[in-house]
């Protein structure tokens, strides 16, 4: 029965033109031939189901069915071309319900990972992309060339509003450009959103006056939609430049509206929770694709991993994600499964975060380039002399790296950095 | 270093009271002791990070840190108690960013699955739960005891508005109570949302007149938030009782607002995409927990699997999910890792869907009880004589099952059912 329902979805001679193309890694279930599992995926993610239908005409099928046009049993990679008519433009949830929907649960597959999507021009044009992008962020922060330096107020939770603002102040005065809330800090009993934002922005102004540099705060507005929007508008009304959101926990529908509301805020995307479905190399959805969706929708900054930190994520993968969100033309290979042409969609600033400390800055900048935010929480607040000295050490490491000075030489002039490196090597 | 940062998060003597409790399956990374990995999870999901912090006071830590209070190396299951102050009430994205956030990506763990959460009373009370629930839905549809019978218009995509409405009409006339859009059908070039809803509701009225039964249509409003709300309000204005949403693709922030808007629509949750993170038994998030979140937020109907269909999902798991959303007191065991007291949160109607046909109804009802929607797409439209006869066959199988008549006897009186069983056995 299955054979009949899924037949016709394989066509190795097909040459995609304006189609949307998805690349999957596929392991069929026991006793299911690879070709059949591949066709089952193409069927279920376009117009078919497990049994032939009285209501599906041949003409309809010819016009709308997806086609497996590339299939490699050795690598497990299949490529499927989807007619663009299968997708509602500008609707990310609909896209995901199609190509990242039922397919993961089908009995015909044992493992299935959506690795990449190539979006055709007409689909890309239905999205705005980032309002600011890398250049916009640099312009606002008046930092032309070097990576931005950021920290997360730590501990994640526990500080009250006043303490939070004080920690932020110390980080800014030490040399951080950006200070953000952590992913689970929203509006707590002991640290209310409005009060925290007011107090932290007041000390941001103070930090700007003292340092003579631009400083920015990224408050976490993660919440049910209308509360999230209320908080975003509130921070904007106080002269805050940023809103940060936990993109995975919040979800695509609300993220699109947050962007489309065009509040004039730089949007910072934290990816907490992504590894529930991105980490397994054989099943789920790739972080590369999540990053592409963030660029399409229009986040200005996105966490991509740290290469060298506390989180899982190899150098090749993190580099590929960085390129995907920062370059205009993407070529296949080196972690990119499919090519992409981003047209006039602005580049997103990659945020490297998770277990970083000053000693890791040279390697990070070498791998990722200057267009990144180097963000360290523990690596700043864990400094034996406290937050301010931790931020000073990080800035020292960054300035030395920009001048090409090895950190071991920089420590001769900079005792804060020397202390940090003694602690973390 | 890691030892020091994570120490103090294990306390087997701790007895949770008003804490929120999470159960995880845990496999530590190579060379990481089980206890250390467990503490790393408790730390990262509450107030800690990879290195000790100058900014974290002892008092703060005592008050707010999570505690691994149960740990079983053999089964891999750990239980963590979180002080309730770590969570913002009524904010599901914040909850997930905490307990289902960074933890999945930590280097200390190889695999980690969030199996279950026990929500304390005070947390549960910050949510509305379903507006209608099982009794509300039964009241509106005037079906007192038997399972509801539903179908999905098939093919998923391809029909225009008129054809879509016609297929729905045939399904209703054959005996379906409910007809729904498929998960990837929103507003397409060839099938526009407004036009489809208008035409389908017109034929619903016709079906009600002819059949003398209540009939309902579940249009898919999956979209970016404001468009989703516009569509939901539109269907309500036309006298539609339902809105259906792809919960995973849409995301929690928008789902909470859809519920809280209290539009007076029965909310139907399709779970397309869940298997990207629920299917692997060793990593990700359990479907049981997703179901609990849907009940908390307040969906009235939720896809739970079919036990016997095209999708992955064992009998024990699907039964446990059904109980979790339909019972008030949940005991540990039989697929439930933790207990729960749902207080006055209404029960959610379980929807069984995915590869069903009339022949599977007796087994399904035996396993799941009467409080379900039996939903079949291919199992109706794949009938050799078409949709109407397919729906007739399904209704015949359902009525026979309710009377305790084996289907093989029912086929003697009902040729539509006989044809269906000959095809699908």
Layout of secondary structure:
The structure is a homodimer of 425-residue chains.
Chain A: H1 2-6, E1 20-28, H2 34-44, H3 58-64, E2 67-72, E3 77-82, H4 92-99, E4 109-118, H5 121-124, H6 133-141, E5 148-152, H7 161-174, E6 178-180, H8 193-211, E7 216-218, H9 225-237, E8 242-246, H10 247-250, H11 252-260, E9 266-270, H12 275-278, E10 284-285, H13 287-297, E11 301-303, H14 315-326, E12 329-330, E13 340-341, E14 349-353, H15 361-368, E15 372-375, H16 378-381, H17 387-402, H18 407-413, H19 415-424
Helix pairs in contact in A: 7-8, 7-17, 13-14, 17-19, 18-19
Tell me what you see in this structure.
The structure is a homodimer of 425-residue chains. Chain A is α/β, with parallel strands linked by helices. Chain A folds into two domains: 121 residues, RuBisCO large subunit, N-terminal domain (Alpha-Beta Plaits), CATH 3.30.70.150; 292 residues, Ribulose bisphosphate carboxylase, large subunit, C-terminal domain (TIM Barrel). Chain A has 19 helices and 15 strands. Chain A has an eight-stranded parallel sheet, with helices on both faces. In chain A, helix 7 links the parallel strand 5 and strand 6. In chain A, helix 13 runs parallel beside helix 14 and helix 18 crosses helix 19. The longest helix of chain A is centred in the middle third of the chain and has 19 residues. The first copy, chain A, is elongated, with a radius of gyration of 23 Å. The model of chain A has no long low-confidence stretch (mean pLDDT 96). At the A-B interface, helix 3, helix 4, helix 9, helix 10 and helix 11 of A face helix 3, helix 4, helix 9, helix 10 and helix 11 of B.
């Amino acid at each position: 029965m299955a054979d009949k329902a899924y037949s016709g979805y394989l066509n190795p001679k097909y040459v995609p033109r304006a189609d949307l193309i998805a690349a999957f890694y596929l392991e069929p279930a026991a006793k299911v031939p690879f070709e059949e599992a591949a066709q089952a995926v193409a069927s279920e993610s376009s117009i078919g189901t497990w049994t032939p239908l009285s209501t599906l005409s041949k003409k309809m099928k010819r016009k709308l069915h997806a086609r497996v046009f590339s299939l490699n049993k050795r690598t497990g990679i299949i490529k499927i071309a989807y007619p663009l008519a299968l997708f509602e433009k500008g609707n990310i949830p609909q896209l995901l319900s199609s190509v990242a929907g039922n397919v993961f649960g089908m009995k015909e597959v044992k493992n299935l990972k959506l690795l990449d999507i190539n979006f055709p021009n007409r689909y890309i044009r239905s999205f705005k992309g980032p309002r600011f992008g890398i250049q916009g962020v640099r312009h606002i922060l008046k930092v032309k060339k070097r990576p931005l330096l950021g920290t997360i107020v730590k501990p994640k939770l526990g500080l009250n509003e006043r303490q939070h603002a004080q920690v932020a102040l110390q980080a800014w005065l030490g040399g951080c450009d950006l200070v953000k809330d952590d992913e689970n800090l929203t509006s707590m009993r002991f640290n209310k959103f409005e009060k925290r934002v007011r107090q932290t922005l007041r000390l941001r102004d103070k930090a700007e006056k003292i340092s003579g540099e631009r400083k920015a705060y990224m408050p976490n507005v993660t919440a049910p939609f209308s509360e999230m929007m209320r908080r975003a508008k509130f921070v904007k009304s106080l002269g805050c430049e940023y809103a940060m959101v936990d993109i995975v926990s919040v979800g695509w529908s609300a993220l699109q509206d947050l962007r489309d509301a065009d509040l004039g805020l730089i949007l910072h995307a934290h990816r907490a929770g992504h590894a529930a479905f991105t980490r397994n190399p054989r099943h789920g959805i790739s972080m590369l694709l999540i990053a592409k969706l963030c660029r399409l929708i229009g986040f200005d900054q996105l966490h991509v991993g740290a290469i060298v930190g506390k989180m899982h994520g190899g150098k090749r993968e993190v580099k590929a994600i960085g390129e995907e969100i920062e370059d205009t033309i993407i070529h296949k290979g080196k972690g990119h499964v499919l090519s992409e042409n981003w047209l006039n969609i602005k580049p997103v600033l990659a945020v490297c975060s998770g277990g970083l400390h000053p000693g890791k800055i040279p390697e990070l900048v070498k791998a990722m380039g200057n267009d990144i935010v180097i963000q360290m929480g523990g690596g700043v607040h864990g400094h034996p002399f406290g937050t301010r000295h931790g931020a000073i050490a990080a800035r020292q490491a960054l300035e030395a790296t920009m001048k090409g000075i090895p950190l071991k030489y920089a420590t001769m002039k900079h005792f804060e950095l020397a202390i940090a490196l003694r602690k973390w090597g």
